[in-house]
Amino acid sequence: MTMKKIIYILLAFLTYFSVKVSAQCDYFYTVTVSTSAYQTDAGYHQVYVFVDDLTGVIVVVNSTGVFTPTFSGLYRIYAVNYLDPNPPVLSAGNLWTNVESYSLSNCMDILGPYTGTAVSICEEICELDDIVVSTSGYHIGGSYQQTYVLVNTSGTILETNTSGTFAGYSIGVYYVYAVNTEETDVLNEMTNLGPWADVSAMMAAYCMDIIGPRAFNLIEAVTPTFNLLGPYCQGDTPGVLPGSSTNSPPITGNWSPATISTASAGTTTYTFTPNAGQCATTTTMAIVINNNITPTFNLGGTYCEGAVIPALPTSSTNIPTITGTWSPAINNMVSTEYIFTPNAGQCATTTTLTITIENVIIPVFTQLGPYCEGETPNILPSSSNNIPAITGTWLPAVISTGLSGTITYTFTPDGGQCGVTTTMDIVVNPMPDVPTANLIQPTCIANTGSITVTHPTGINYEYSLDGITWQSSVVFNGLNSGTYTVYVHNNSVDPTCVSEDNFVINTIPGLPPLPTATMVQPTCASTTGNITINSPLGANFEYSINGVTWQSSTTFTGLSSGTYTIYVRDNATDPTCVSDDDFVINPIPALPDNPTVTIIQPTCAVPTGSITVISPTGAGMKYSLNGTIWQSSVTFTNLVSGNYIIYVRDNLVDPSCVSNDSYVINTVPSAPSNPIANLTHPTCIILTGSIEITNPLGLNIEYSLDGLTWQSSPLFENLSIGNHTVFVRDNAVDPTCVSNSNFAINNIPDSPTAIISDSHDVTISGNCDGDATVLASGGDGNYTYLWDDSSAQATQTATGLCSGNYTVIVTDGNGCTTSVSITINEPNALV
After folding, report:
1. Any residues with CB less than 8 A from the CB of 105 and at least 6 apart, and which?
2. Whole-number Å distance between alpha carbons of 771 and 760
3. Can you give the pTM of this predicted structure?
4. DSSP secondary structure string, 54-90?
């Protein structure tokens, strides 16, 4: 197919950078760099150079380091110090490579590029605006169609149209391309809104032109903010609506309505519209105009003469509250009217309240007590004996008999009664202390116990086991097992105040329970075992491993393998009562076998290897690569080349018993070199071509044409016109390691064309003096001629021709032929 010639018209607003979508923008609209002069010798100058990264052309040279390019794209920035006051290469439009070459032989230093790589700069527009681009058709012949394509930073086509206007997109970075084509496949691919790379990849195979991208950064529109005005009282003089917002920088604009009105109460919404040219939204402010209200209070009522009257509140119960002051000062002796005056700046009027003062009454009660310490007391009465009764509360609220002594209880009348507080003193006599005693418990020798009171003791104290029979002796002997209550009273204070406590006489002690224990068996990490008693346990128990030496600790450590007898006794009961049992410490467990494995080495198809343990295996086996993470799987995958140690342990036996062995993962094999070939192209005689690989060659080398069938022969014949890819692999190394090269089989050459450019008929009938000249064109221009006259002339002009029909065959240097015929006439014979 003859490719169409494409004419590119590069327009002012679109610059051809690349048909690929850039990743992200490093800067939006403006980029600023700075550095102190790094060459400070006398006479040196410092400038910043802004270079187009794709063309290498200098765009701007300045001394500020601030660049705002006209178009989005990829740029590099350098700082240059030079001694020459006007280097001839340091100017816009020059190639940066000339500057670098110049610096090698002149007093010029270069710092950069900034960030080390090219920076991407996008154009910045407001999210409220449309993305708009335009260009005249840069290829308008035939049925070409120009389409604009919007692409996101992920490389996905978002929208296509022929207008160049894209509306309704949110903040972010977008890329616009202009595509001219008449190819249906390309137009369909763009309409599918798939990956942009699928479109750009079609350039090599289709008649299409791409300009772009032009990058846009849609920035978020600012919402203007203002300090809220108001609220105002009805009829107040209001503030002035501000002409600019509190944002930084401020947003300027106009309000509707333009001024605040306080003529009537209510809430009015004022709308702010930003001036044109600012990326900002409209906003509103609700301003409240309040009615003048009357303050209200939860106050007033009646108080008793001399009572504490709460301070009058400076804020009303209205919502919102009204603040202010009262007059006159509070008087708790006579009834008074008080006036509330609101503070300035509030929408409120004055108001009044009256407080009434009444005479007081002393409450009278029946005396309570005395009580014994700890005795349940009476309930304090909630109303007095007065008529009418005074109700109220006591402090403390209930009578406490917890401690002996005299406690004063204060009665406070309830509100609304003119009763004064009064008191009642209540006596609580002391209880004797709770008795304490020494107990002698039964033993295997003495079968009864005794209780001896140790406190309280003294000449006035008596004791009882049943609360009926009392004795001055502190000792109670011959007691069988059981619980006994010991009572005590003091005859000199109050014999009705009795204290008591319970004491237990135990049963005759028996043998302690047989010992049970937890054993820690020896491991490869710890080669001795432990025995720890689980029961019986307690502060009074002692244990022995030989029946001679006793200890309070429940643990016996450092034990080699063997059978041990553990003895136990209870010192608090009877240390002669001993129980025992036997426990076994096992031998140290054996190490597992060293691991054996199978190894899968890396290939070009799978560039990592794996190691699989084949022995030892089992339910309790665990494996680790290089002694880090343990796993039950026998396989370790995705291993890069290197040395590895496989560790193995049996968790069911002893996870501290570990064996290991070392293994090697090879490097990924190398692919063979890309194929080199001799090509034979089609001619007018032989219509197909051939490719013969000249390198690499070898016994184990195989070849494939266009990734299909593999063969050992390096020759591919009878090839059609077009591009072919030859793949090569080495079966002896790794058949997945494949290299390739592309080769093109040319078109069949065009045949020449020919016309008879001049001819002359026979002059006299019967003569052979005619001639004819052929004119050839096309082909390769190297022509040979063969006429079919009797002498088979091989020149461009055939002479000595008799009358008749002749054909000449024209052949060019490619062997391509054409032919043309001519008739040589003779004049009519004379009559």
Report:
1. none
2. 5
3. 0.34
4. TT-BEEEEESS-EE--SS-EEEEEEEEEESSSS-TT-
Q: What is the pLDDT of residues 451-484, one digit of tens each?
A: 999 999 999 999 999 888 999 999 999 899 899 9
Backbone φ and ψ of 196, nearest 5°: -60, -30
Beta bridge pairs of residue 338: 353
How far is Cα 121 from Cα 53, in angstroms, rounded to an integer?
A: 12
Of residues 19, 67, 8, the one with CA closest to residue 175: 19
Sign of the torsion angle spanned by Cα atoms 397, 398, 403, 408: positive
Given a contact cutoff of 8 angstroms between Cβ atoms, the answer to whether 629 and 649 are in contact is no
Q: Which DSSP symbol is given to 5?
A: P
**Residue 743, beta-bridge partner list:** 724
Strand 253-256, strand 266-274: pairing: antiparallel
Chain mean position to CA 140: 49
Q: Is it true that the peptide bond before 575 is cis, omega within 30 degrees of 0?
A: no
Residues 105 and 84: beta-carbon distance below 8 Å: no
Joined together, the tokens standing for residue 745 give 């089989």
pLDDT in tens, 343-370: 987 888 889 888 888 888 889 999 998 8
Backbone angles phi, psi at 279, to 5 degrees: -85, 80
State whether the Cα torsion 615-617-620-621 is positive or negative: positive
| Amino acid letter for position 759 | S
Q: Phi, psi (5° rounding) for residue 191?
A: -65, -30
What tens digit of pLDDT does each residue of 126-136 get? 888 898 888 76
The token pair at 335 is: 């009834």
CA atoms of 188 and 138, how far apart (whole Å): 21
Residues 6+ apart with CB under 8 A from 415: none
Where residue 250 falls among pLDDT bands split at 50, 70, 90?
very high
Longest dimension (CA), the chain: 197
C-alpha span between 421 and 163 (Å, rounded):
95
- Report whether 674 contacts 741 (CB < 8 A): yes
- Selection from 11, 9, 17, 12 nearest residue 212 by Cα: 17
